[in-house]
Amino acid sequence: MKISVVQGEDIDAGHIGSWRRVQAENPLLASPFFAPEFTQAVADVRDDVRVAVLEDHGSVAFFPHQRNGVHGRPVGGPLSDYQGIIARDDAWIDPKALLRACKLHVFEYDHLLAAQRAFVPGHRHYGPSYVISLESGYDAFFQAKKAAHVMEIRTAGRHQRAMENELGPLRFVPHSTDPAIVEQLLRWKRQQYRDTQVADVFAVPWSRRLLYRIIESQAPSFSGMLSALYAGDTLVAAHLGMRTPSVWHYWILAYDHAHGRYSPGTLLLLEMLRHADSVGIAQFDLGKGYAPYKEKLHTGTIPLAEGFCERPSLTGALHHARMRAKEWIRQSSLHPVARTLARRLEKRLNHG
Q1: Are 298 and 131 in contact (CB under 8 A)?
Q2: 2.60.40, 3.30.530, 3.40.630, 1.10.10: which CATH number matches 2-127+303-344?
Q3: What is the pLDDT tens value at each position of the chain, 352 positions in all?
Q4: Which regions of the chain carry the CATH code 3.40.630.30?
Q5: What does the alpha-carbon distance between residue 272 and residue 247 come to, in Å, rounded to a whole number?
Q6: Angle at CA 319, nearest 5°, toward 318 and 320?
Q7: Are 131 and 302 in contact (CB under 8 A)?
Q8: CATH match of 136-281 with 3.40.630.30
């Protein structure tokens, strides 16, 4: 197998075409995070994006990653909800040879497709990405969840009427390019991070630039989707996601807490699902991480893995020791204390 590595911004049109074909042929790669446009968008705002091109007897595969010295991470870092190799479903790739060709000692991941065999030995934890199938249409989904007494569905009409009585008619915008909506979305989201003491991923400039770059991407194979919900003239919720021809990924949502009693985030989500069905989207991906609304609304899951791959080296050995210590803390009674200290440290680093 021949493996060559290029900078993210230097991948050529021929490889982009091959990348799209591989993605289209493998249903596991339907997420917009696996589209070449996502890697290109990140490469436009970061200078550490690399793509390994794997060629073997006419077949081709791609391994996009970010490189910090000999340490590799997925493209997009904490903003990446799907990770892995762009390859045929039956492809076998030697992970150690891949890391060697990329001059990496360690590759660490937290949203990797669990089904990809190359990295299975390094998996440490598993978690589902919750998805909603729209194969039977939005109305069928809505009625099934209503019959199941899902609270978010049963109260949506009442919340909508109450908000309209106070603020005015509901208006849904599937996609906007208005920068004022992005700025408001970021203000709401960053306030949410502060309120919940979670590290602010938008404290670094490249992450904010990436959002605008994603919104600019409008092509049949990949599009940014900045959706908004208004009540009268008031913006009450906004969401930035991405879509391919078949999948819309639910990515960054925030809403005005002054109107939180009306559940504007849920109302926006339902409008997005209705619109997705109307334009032929077959799957709406709510992403990894437990939340009550995901548990109630999802119709299926995609297994994702957290872990790391390493090759023999001092860096790899040190990383392995660090990960074992992290695992011990996670399983011990010290975990709540350690988690609190880690959050405080991340907050100080992000704001200091």
Answers
A1: yes
A2: 3.40.630
A3: 899 999 999 999 999 999 999 999 999 999 999 999 999 999 999 999 999 999 998 889 999 999 999 999 999 999 999 999 999 988 889 999 999 999 999 999 999 999 999 999 999 999 999 999 999 999 999 999 999 999 999 999 999 999 999 999 999 999 999 999 999 999 999 999 999 999 999 999 999 999 999 999 999 999 999 999 999 999 999 999 999 999 999 999 999 999 999 999 999 999 999 999 999 999 999 999 999 999 999 999 999 999 999 997 545 555 455 555 555 555 555 556 555 554 554 444 343 3
A4: 136-281
A5: 12
A6: 90
A7: yes
A8: yes
How far apart CA 299 and CA 242 sit, in angstroms, is 20
Contact 62, 6 (CB under 8 A): no
Please give the distance of CA 325 from its chain centroid, rounded to a whole number.
27
Tokens of 315: 């860096």
Q: How far is it, in rounded angstroms, from Cα 116 to Cα 84? A: 7
∠ at Cα 219 (215, 222), nearest 5°? 70
In angstroms, the Cα distances linking 7 to 18, 39, 319 are 17, 11, 25
Instruction: Write out the two tokens for 327.
Output: 């695992």
For residue 44 the two structure tokens come to: 């436009």
Helix crossing, 205-216 with 179-196: angle to 10°? Answer: 140
DSSP strand pairing (300-310 vs 49-56) = unpaired
Task: Of 217, 201, 199, give the one whose Cα is nearest residue 39.
Answer: 217
* Model confidence, pTM: 0.89
